[in-house]
Amino acid sequence: MLEVSNLACSRGDHPLFTDLSFTLEAGELLQVQGENGKGKTSLLRTLCGFMQPVAGEIRWRGENVEELDEDYFAELLYLGHHNAIKDELNALENLQISAGLAGIELGEKEAVAALRRMGLKGREHLPVKVLSQGQRRRAALARMLVSDAPLWVLDEPLTALDVGAVGLIQELLGEHLARDGMVIFTTHQPLVVEGVELRRLVLS
After folding, report:
1. Rounded Cα distance, 98 and 96, in Å
2. Predicted confidence (pLDDT) per residue in 97-125, tens digit
3. Which residues form the ABC transporter domain (predicted)?
4. 76-79: strand order across its sheet
5. Is 69's pLDDT higher than 90?
6. Which value, in Å, is the radius of gyration of the alpha carbons in the chain?
7. How would you classify the pairing of strands 55-60 and 63-64?
8. What pTM value is reported for the model?
9. φ, ψ for residue 174 (rounded to 5)?
10. Cα–Cα dist 9/76, whole Å
């Protein structure tokens, strides 16, 4: 379980939110909502350790994440608004490198299978810089297929995706949640996972 208690975050001298508390349990899907500038991305980045909260506590499996350190981050997959892939490398190389950084030993066969499921068959060995924006996003999101992390933190995962790709992401989320995974995410697009109740956390 992920537990957030009395969390407060700011950007510079500007407070974003205070006294924020919520929990996220196995099999749950939580969407963070709010107007622009209310701290949605900042909350996700704080959960991932990229930002330090002004106050409050984040606990994972009952322990403070600051004490768990790398043991917590090893159980977390973060996909940000930006793709975080290198244009000069191909989709296969990008996926294998990102998996390696997460401590996952990913063979070429498994990586190719993941990219093909993401709709990139025939483009696995092309430099990312020649792919469309939607294809680049698919290449980045392929990390979802090779990660065994139970906690997924996704910032605008549907950006630049067509209807077919959105359906695939919803399918992958459903599979992850069925394995007792958990997901916290932001999106400006409709996202529905069949058989899963969507919880909402509104920052105001």
Report:
1. 6
2. 999 988 899 999 999 999 999 999 999 99
3. 2-204
4. 76-79, 151-155, 182-186, 29-33, 198-202
5. no
6. 17
7. antiparallel
8. 0.94
9. -60, -40
10. 20
